[in-house]
Amino acid sequence: MQSWAPVDIPRLEGGGPPLRLHDTSTGRIRPTAPGPEATMYVCGITPYDATHLGHAATYLAFDLVNRYWRDLGHDVHYVQNVTDIDEPLLERAARDQDDWVVLGMRETALFREDMEALRVVPPRHYIGAVEAMTEISEFVGKLLAGGSAYRIDDPEYPDVYFDSSATGHFGYESNYDEQTMLRLSRERGGDPDRPGKRHPTDALLWRMAREGEPSWESELGAGRPGWHVECAAISLNRLGEQIDLNGGGSDLIFPHHEFGAAHAEALTGAHPFARHYVHSGMIGLDGEKMSKSRGNLVFVSKLRSAGVDPGAIRLALLSGHYREDRPWTDELLAQAQERLARWREAVALDAGPDAAEAVANLRTHLADDLDTPRALAAVDAWVSAALERRGGDAAAPGVVRDAVDALLGVEL
Ligand code: 5CA
Ligand code: ZN
Q1: Is the peptide bond before 327 cis (omega within 30 degrees of 0)?
Q2: Helix H or strand E segment including 288
């Protein structure tokens, strides 16, 4: 699929400390240590509705990782998928008497526009499940041949499932106990109650064609893939058998990333699949998680068409820590708009206090598990000093403007 337009990123002088990030599998904040090329896979949208502020918050968190690694001089190889065939997409299309292909294309186009407006650095490979169908079915074929997958005992629909005991490491990513795994697989698209599986949580790899459902020919028989193997195949085939970061919102910790990792590891034997599993918190509205199924959504595109500056949306979402579940409120946006105006006023001055300390603090706080509340406060401190004292170094406003642009993605 076509990715979205690239973003100009100013190059800054110097550099900050290595990036430390929380890793779900170990429960610790650990340094990331990519080689010259840093590899990152972030799960993309299921395009059945417009980008809401929860999605935006998640993609912004990983955009900060991307920007920080680039600032350190890494060549960031970023891959993202689009789940352009899956149950929720088919259900929504049926409900609205829409064509699922058209629905997916329309919402993906809107997502690209939203990402561009938010100045999110695009992935190098932006891959839809449908266009990756052959590689996904081949991946399943290899798991089956290697004994990590099996066909369920159902003469009508001999679907293929993953044997979760195949790697000997299952559960290391989420660290959830069995009860929690069962509950979450039931809630998040799994089928623990289906008879004939080796283990109730075993995840679907290939669903044989049903009457009236879209399907693709393959050596497995006509059908379509399960959700986790889509991401496992797309990431592994482009980024290699071990990657620096696998990311998404915290609702992907289980079953999605646990199985994605297990699928990849069962195929290659390389453990762990990702050196960091990074998860962002959930954005809520009126006390509930913002979600397409609940319908309590604030859309990025709606805010944009109401004339809200995307820079203010960025600042509003970055004013909280990415790992915290946190609410979206009108007040948050109003504060961000005020902050954006102050920052713009300060960088438009013809001189300001020395920028070196502000930039160093900005980098240090970002490197500390993306501590954006403190990173924004570091810029606030420089801005207040610039507006109060006036005068100083003529180069400073430009340096701060570039640093805010490069590291936070906000154009002043
Ligand atoms: N297509 C799959 C991943 S392969 C999927 O989860 N799509 S999604 O459209 O439902 O979500 C896209 C991303 O947004 C995921 O990382 C998800 O965790 C994140 N997300 C969804 N809702 C919220 C929310 N309320 N707050 C923060 N992130 C969210
Ligand atoms: Zn995914």
Answers
A1: no
A2: strand 288-289
Closest CA to 44 of 83, 75, 89: 83
Instruction: Using a pLDDT cut of 90, give the percent of the chain over it.
Output: 95
133-145 and 258-268 are packed helices; what angle lies between their axes, rounded to 10 degrees? 60
Which amino acids bring their CB within 6 angstroms of ligand 1? 43-46, 54-55, 57-58, 81, 83, 231, 248-249, 251-252, 280, 282-283, 289-291
Residue 125, beta-bridge partner list: 79
Q: What share of the chain is helix, strand, coil (3-state, %, to 5)?
A: 45, 15, 40
Identify the pLDDT of residue 390.
Answer: 85
Structure-token pair, residue 307: 């004339």
For residues 202, 207, 208, 211, the Cα torsion angle rounded to the nearest 10 degrees is 130
Per-residue pLDDT tens over the stretch 198-243: 999 999 999 999 999 999 999 999 999 999 999 999 999 999 999 9
Distance CA 201, CA 254 (A): 11
The SS3 of residue 246 is strand
Judged by DSSP in three states, 330 sits in: helix
361-391: burial string, b at 16+ Cβ within 10 Å, e else:
bbbebbbebbbbeebbebbeebbebbeeeee
DSSP string computed for 107-147: HHHHHHHHHHHTTPPPPSEEEETTTTHHHHHHHHHHHHHTT
Whether the predicted pLDDT of 43 surpasses 90: yes
- Three-class SS state of 184: helix
In three-state secondary structure terms, 350 is coil
Q: How far apart are CA 299 and CA 412, in angstroms?
A: 23
Residue with tokens 């920007």: 67
Pocket test for ligand 1, best of 252, 257, 285 (most atoms within 8 A of CB): 252
**47 prior amide bond cis, ω within 30:** no
Q: What is the residue with the minimal CA distance to atom 23 of ligand 1?
A: 54
